[in-house]
Amino acid sequence: MRSNWQFPPDWAESLIARTDPDRPALIAGQTVTYGRLQSEIDKWVLELERRGIGRGTTVALQVNRSFTYLYLVYGLWSVGAGIMLVDPRLQQEEANELLDRFRPDYHIRDKLKSGGMPVFREELDVDIIANGQDCCQGGTAVKPYALLQFTSGTTGCPKAVVRSGTSIRAELDRLAAIPCGIQPNDTVTVLASLHHSFGLIGGIMTALSTGAAVLIPSSLQSKQIAQSMAASRATALFAVPFHFELLAGLAESEVGSLRFAVSGGEMLPETIAEKFRERFGVRVGQAYGTSETGMLAADWHGDHPGTVGACLNGIEWDIRDRELLVRLPQSPYADMEGRERYREGWLHTRDAVEALPGSGLIRLQGRLDSIRIIGGLKIDAVETERSIGQHPQIEEARAVFTEDHRLEVYLVGKPGLDMSELLRWCASRMAAYKIPQTFHRVHSLPRTVSGKPIRDPAALAGLHPWNESRITE
């Protein structure tokens, strides 16, 4: 039975396809039909309303990958609330910094400690915490939003990106219009993070709005993924390069009856794409987008290797000085962090691209700032510097990426600095994927004549270290 909330926002009215209630909607250890999916969402709508959550309220959602997480996403949007997504992989200190910065009205979190559980859980117990009437005092005032996400920025402070419901609806419509894209009879495997746009909107929401089934393997071990896909006769796959590399390395395994596979988060190396094609007989397509805009371009069937396909219908774009610019009606940033990238109606993506003459195809050529995407996760060297520099025994830190895509940090420490203690300190305050693989302790760090830090990895590699500590070899 539906709640008394009769008028959800227009954009949220048809996020889930009206189809046979007995059709599979979500598949993990158990199968949730479309009928049960709607019923579970309605139960959460009643509970959210009972707690005072409704139109115009903001809710920080810090819940691990689970059916419960998905029920809450749809339930919150059904009552007209704005969702501030907090990645459960963050350490509590990192999460608290974001909560203090934006002061949402409510905070929903796992009763068990969040931490990005590798195993998909079907049901989770959560706490719903009201932050009080004075929750906005001292925080950043944010315009109304449907979704507030965080993405690393060149300043070292995470950028807060807001998406309107209209923007999300338009993205879903563009994705549904992709030729030979997700169809109602598909079973779509989603391995990409459910806390980022590619996995949540591009995979989960696009599939459910179409009437397809979504497979979320309970384990992210390669053999278990393949077994789940084969048992469910998966026809589509949304993943990041890390997952394609894992699956391509399997021997004598099947992954269902794939008709297309899409890689997102970063460009898939052609060697991995070719190995996957040889192993499973399916070319891997490429999707490209940003948190600020949603998906911008797609080559879902791998027809144009080395590119991300053409920009989707309805996207107004331009290339200036190699940089991709996207027209947006307003700044996508919630506060001053990142706002310098939105000028005169154009978002400066900081992605270097090339448009292939006569085809409209886009080829990515790398980033123009300090961000790299490794394993589908954005890592910002400046943010790492900022975090490590807060250690009381660190005088200066300089983080760089190596040619083989490793994050390393060069640091100047005070006498008595214990490197083992520094590693423990980082592990308690930073998400694991943000911690450098190698720490180099040096006597001093070079600067230009004008005093600016030198970030050339080759120049830093030539420094004589006191010692170094490696987290991974």
CATH architecture of the largest domain: 3-Layer(aba) Sandwich
Main sheet overview: 9 strands, mixed
Arrangement of strands in the largest sheet: 2-1-10-9-11-12-13-14-15
How many separate helices?
11
CATH superfamily of the largest domain: ANL, N-terminal domain
In which range does the helix fraction lie? 25-40%
Q: Would you tell me the structural class of the helices and strands? A: alpha/beta
Roughly what is the average pLDDT, rounded to an integer? 87
Shape: globular
**Rg over CA atoms:** 23 Å
CATH topology value of the largest domain:
Rossmann fold
Spatial gap, N to C terminus: 56 Å
Q: Can you tell me the residue ranges where pLDDT is under 50 for at least 5 consecutive residues?
A: 1-6
Number of strands: 26
Describe the structure.
- This protein is an alpha/beta fold.
- It has 11 helices and 26 strands.
- It has helices at 34-50, 67-78, 92-102, 165-176, 197-210, 222-232, 241-248, 270-280, 381-388, 419-429, 457-461; strands at 24-27, 31-33, 58-62, 82-85, 106-110, 126-130, 147-151, 159-163, 187-190, 213-215, 236-239, 260-263, 284-290, 294-299, 310-311, 317-320, 323-327, 342-343, 346-355, 362-367, 371-374, 377-380, 394-401, 407-413, 438-442, 465-470.
- A 9-stranded mixed β-sheet has the order 2-1-10-9-11-12-13-14-15, with helices on both faces.
- Helix 4 packs across helix 5 (197-210) and helix 7 (241-248) crosses helix 8.
- The protein is globular.
